[in-house]
Amino acid sequence: MYFIGFLFGIGFDTVSEIAIISLSALLSGTLRGISILTLLIFPLLFTSGMVLVDSSDGFFMNKLYGWVGSNDMKKLWFNMTMTAVSVLVAYAIGGFEFITLLEHYLNVDIASSSIIAGLNSGGYWSLLGLLVVFIFAVSWTVSAILFKTRYSKTL
User: Fold this and answer.
1) What is the pLDDT of residues 57-78, one digit of tens each?
2) Is pTM beyond 0.85 here?
3) Cα atoms in the 13 Å half-sphere on the side-chain side of 90
């Protein structure tokens, strides 16, 4: 199974996009003096990051589903919690994108757009990715604690 996960981690689409963007920057003259082999480190770094995050996700999900076991109440509790957190994170990211589009195409100045502009100019999007991973880890922990305190007596 690790080999299959590794193959998904080196997904052709995204890695090839990073390689093509790097090569086009090189060929346009933007990155003078940098060799092609040096630029190809970016797809390798992306692949390494994806393998690390996807492997960690698989590890934690395996542990979590082992904890859930055959208890239907635990499965329902966990699935509802993770679905709710996933929807909230997706709406937050979509909201950021929607505000950016509104500001760009309608020339509207939205109060939260300055926050988004700060994220874009400071390069903080990678920190937001770590924040999303942290939110999921905290929600798993809180969900497990709440389940144990609320439902452990009834099971």
Assistant:
1) 888 878 877 877 777 888 888 8
2) no
3) 6
